[in-house]
Amino acid sequence: MAPKEITSLILEAESTRVFFLIHGYTGSSDDFHNLPGILHKKFNANVKVILLPGHGTKVEDLDHITYADFMYVLRNELEKELSKGMEVILGGVSMGGLFALLLAAEYPVQGVFNVSSPYVMKFPFNLPGLKYILKYKKYWKKATQSSTHSKTSGSFSYTHMHSNGFYIAVQAKKELRRVLKNVSSPLLTIFSTKDDIGHIRSVRSIQEGANSSIKREGIFHIEPHNVFYSNEDHKVNDEIVRFIEYIDLPEKHLGSREKIAAIIPAYNEGSRIEAVLRAVTAVSLIDEVIVVDDGSTDNTREVVTKFPNVTYIQNEVNIGKAGSLDKGVTHTDASILFFCDADLRGITPTMIEQILEPVLFRTYAMFIGLRNNPMQKSVHLFAINSGERALTREVWEKLPHYFKHRYRVEAGLNYMVRKYFGGFGYRTFDYSQPLKESKYGLVRGTYLRWSMNMDVLLAYTREIIERLFRPQRLYTCHDK
Questions:
Q1: What is the Cα–Cα distance from 105 to 262, expressed in whole angstroms?
Q2: What distance in Å separates the CA atoms of residue 145 and residue 192, rounded to the nearest whole number?
Q3: Is 307 exposed, middle or buried (0-12, 13-18, 19+ CB in 10 A)?
Q4: Rounded to an integer, what distance in angstroms lies between the CA atom of residue 60 and that of residue 139?
Q5: CB of 33 closer than 8 Å to CB of 155
Q6: Domain region containing 418
Q7: The overall pTM is greater than 0.85
Q8: Cα(first)–Cα(last) distance of the chain, in Å?
Q9: C-alpha to C-alpha distances, 196 to 44, 123, 203, 221, 222, nearest whole angstrom
């Protein structure tokens, strides 16, 4: 039995925008936890979470509910909003995400986001004969997450799942495969690698199947299936808010926003830098791309100059990474800087946008993209020294000269932003960087690695000394 009865959630505002949210199977209008209130307040918008047929009472009331029942109610409610001239952004969690995509394929909406949608299912839900087994087991008890019990307390939930949901999900997925190509509005897909129902392949299948001009994805590593009740739900909410803010940047106003410059230091990266430049130059938010060639002896110059809109600067002698970054900064008046290494594998325009946006929207003064390398995943201290980061120009200009030396720069930035700018944000993405040993050979690569480690060690030593003997601010900074 359900612990309480519940109705649709409606938050009203003096606005022509409505967030039309769809909860999951055996869920309710509580499914989105804090998100409706955040969207209502942040965007001064209407929010509607329509209670689906059969929900909000007891699980037995789902016995005879069908896919058609859900679609009838959702179409009816959505058409009411569109007939009033409302700008609609659809959103859905779990099975509700599948229905959000189905509606986005059929109606003219301003955007759509889906969260934990099981477009591709995990074992045992992907077993071919599961539908025959479920004929003999109508209800089964839900798994519980003790770590999120305090968040779910007081919210509506069923203690059991209903086998009927499997049949509805199968039909929804079948129909979505047919119409997903009709989704053309901006699209955000959020998923967790720890989801116990859907497979992470759902993200790629949805993203590749849709024809949206703007496609975003957010990959997390959190539990439970409904990530809005996880201990990191704020990260999910932030991802959705940034997505809405991004699609709210009309083309006619792009020229009035802050200028963003990408600065890429390179040394003998002729065989690797082209893929990085293709990703960076495809990001519409970036106004200027600068490559600082730190005295390369290979074909780096030839590769870079194939990109007509990329500024190429060559150092006469090798001055190191930090010096090259500093030279790049002096060649632009951009107020937001994006630093990026030249040898990355697998970085995409979407990843770069997701690193830039928290700084563009002033959520952080600096945001770091963490790599998916084994060492970075295992040692957090190494991970946050990643070279891919967005930061305000003010941060760079206030960085002491001591840290603008070769490989001291990332550790120095982290220390300074943590202490004087209220901290930085970061997120792991599915891209990587080759080992120095594989690029330069075992002997030289090992030497260069330990030279880099010594620089980082010196940066951390300076940080410790300042904490002990110079606790006062060395310079002033403006509050966010």
A1: 35
A2: 15
A3: middle
A4: 9
A5: yes
A6: 256-469
A7: no
A8: 48
A9: 35, 9, 15, 12, 11
Token look-up 């058609």 returns 68
- What is residue 310's three-state secondary structure? strand
Q: Band of the pLDDT at 465, cuts 50, 70, 90?
A: low
pLDDT 10s digits, 243-298: 998 888 754 344 457 899 999 999 889 889 999 999 999 998 999 999 999 889 99
Separation CA 190–CA 94 (nearest Å): 10
Query: What average pLDDT score do residues 145-160 get?
Result: 56
Q: How far apart are CA 446 and CA 427, in angstroms?
A: 28
Which of 5-9, 17-21, 407-411 reaches the highest mean pLDDT? Answer: 17-21
**CA R_g for the chain:** 25
Buried b (16+ CB within 10 A) or exposed e, 250-276: eeeeeeeeeebbbbbbbbbbbebbbeb
Mark which of 195, 213, 248 sits at the end of a domain: 248
Q: Which of 47-51, 337-341, 395-399 has the least mean pLDDT?
A: 395-399
The domain boundary residue, chosen from 213, 248, 283: 248
Q: What is the pLDDT of residue 165?
A: 66
Average pLDDT of span 85-110: 95
Q: Which residues have C-beta within 8 Å of that of residue 436, sequence separation ≥ 6?
A: 445, 446, 448, 449, 452
Are 241 and 330 in the same domain? no
Is 379's pLDDT higher than 70? Answer: no
Helix intervals (H) in 105-232: 130-134, 149-152, 164-179, 201-209
Return the structure tokens found at 456: 């980082």
CB atoms within 10 A of CB 16: 12
Q: What is the CATH number of the domain that holds 462?
A: 3.90.550.10
**Residue 396 placed within a domain:** yes
- Residue 3, in any domain of the structure: no
pLDDT at 134: 54
Computed from CA positions of residues 92, 29, 241, 252, in that sequence, does the dihedral angle turn out positive or negative?
Answer: positive
Q: What backbone phi and psi angles, to 5 degrees, belong to 411?
A: -60, -40
Among 92, 112, 101, residue whose Cα is nearest residue 24: 92
CA angle 301, 434, 337 (to 5 degrees): 60
Q: What is the pLDDT of residues 189-234, one digit of tens each?
A: 999 888 878 888 888 899 889 998 788 888 888 888 889 988 889 9
What are the tokens at 428?
């792991």
Handedness of CA 35, 40, 44, 45 (dihedral sign): positive
Q: Of 316, 184, 331, which is closest to residue 259 (Cα–Cα)?
A: 331
